[in-house]
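step 3/5: co-fold with iron/sulfur cluster
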Amino acid sequence: MQIIEIYKSLQGESSYAGLPCVFVRLAGCNLRCAWCDSEYTFKGGSRMTQEQVEAEVDRLLPNKGLVEVTGGEPMLQEREVVPLMQSLVDAGYSVLLETSGERPLTNVPEQVVKIVDVKCPDSGEGGTFLPGNLSALTERDELKFVIASRRDYEFARDFVLEVASGQRASSIFSPAFRKDATGSRGVEHCLVDPRDLAEWILADNLNVRLGFQIHKFIWEPSLKGV
Ligand code: SF4
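step 4/5: write tokens
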């Protein structure tokens, strides 16, 4: 499979946020989100076999733990990434898959936690989520909405209340971070004020989690491999 990088950091954008995690970042993406901070994944990378990826994960996490398969869009390499995820599960790792949900998720091993980043309108990729993927989600999975405006918030709210009502997956609303942010590590780089987002969630009585890309607040925002 085509790999951009494999590295250890803290998981930053889900209910697993804050836990040590090895990231397996695959190359290639078929979307072009306006606030994407991973454009370096669109091209390049190196061919690695499943055994080579597993050996690197084992080197970085000798006592097992959390592994996130991400990108780019990892499900573009479904034929290779599905057996990799199953093998990591079988070896005793807890495996997360970060995906836009634009590709079918029915073949993802059931033990893998799917973190599905449903694109909101301001990303420029709204409407790309494949509705049929809702039936592939379980109570372990998470729907994530990266929000850059009130319009995005209303899209996410209506999605949770109408499209995904009755869904067992939990939901996270996360302020989008400016992709050109550098220097300071504060909320001034968020495209929507977290306080506004918190107050909208509370005013609408939504049962969703407010999330942050915590790595942006720990390390220099433009740093890769964290
Ligand atoms: S899906 Fe992810 S990697 Fe692809 S353009 Fe959007 S934010 Fe970037």
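step 5/5: annotate
The longest strand covers residues 2-10.
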